[in-house]
Amino acid sequence: YGRIDAVVAAGLDDSPDCIETYLLGTIALVEAALEVMDPARAGRVVGIGSGAGAFGSARDPRHAAAAAGVIGYIRSVALSMRDTCIRANVVSLAMGSSATAGCRESRFIA
């Protein structure tokens, strides 16, 4: 159809290769979409983050690092596109494991 109005990058992955699939997959998808969106100067980008990216994870540090990278990347896309009508946001999933019980009670918003 020649245009992309929105892209949702949801590469959640708990495998040992999560940095490649989650972080680098998100970057590849978003950059491909931005090539089409940028000339039109309009579109929406949504990255799916994780509470582990904001607070860390004792259970899976690689996933936490990849999630933090996704959060930082999507925020940077938002900043770089601020002079266009392309908007970028991150939606972070709630933390729900017993290892993060203390974080659930905090007042932080990721």
Task: Please tag this protein with its features.
110 residues, alpha/beta, 3-stranded parallel β-sheet, 4 helices, 3 strands, 47% helix, 20% strand, disordered C terminus
Task: Summarize it.
With 110 residues, this protein is of the alpha/beta class. It has helices at 18-40, 51-55, 61-80, 101-104; strands at 6-9, 42-50, 85-93.
Report on the structure:
It is built from 4 helices and 3 strands. It has helices at residues 18-40, 51-55, 61-80, 101-104; strands at 6-9, 42-50, 85-93. It has a 3-stranded parallel beta sheet. α1 (18-40) links the parallel β1 (6-9) and β2 (42-50). α1 (18-40) packs parallel to α3 (61-80).
The H-and-E topology, N to C, reads as EHEHHEH
Shape: elongated
Number of helices: 4
**Termini Cα gap:** 35 Å
Runs in which pLDDT lies below 50 for 5 or more consecutive residues are 102-110
Task: Report Rg.
Answer: 15 Å
Ordered list of secondary-structure elements with their pairings:
Elements: E1 6-9, H1 18-40, E2 42-50, H2 51-55, H3 61-80, E3 85-93, H4 101-104
Parallel strand pairs: 1-2, 2-3
Helix pairs in contact: 1-3
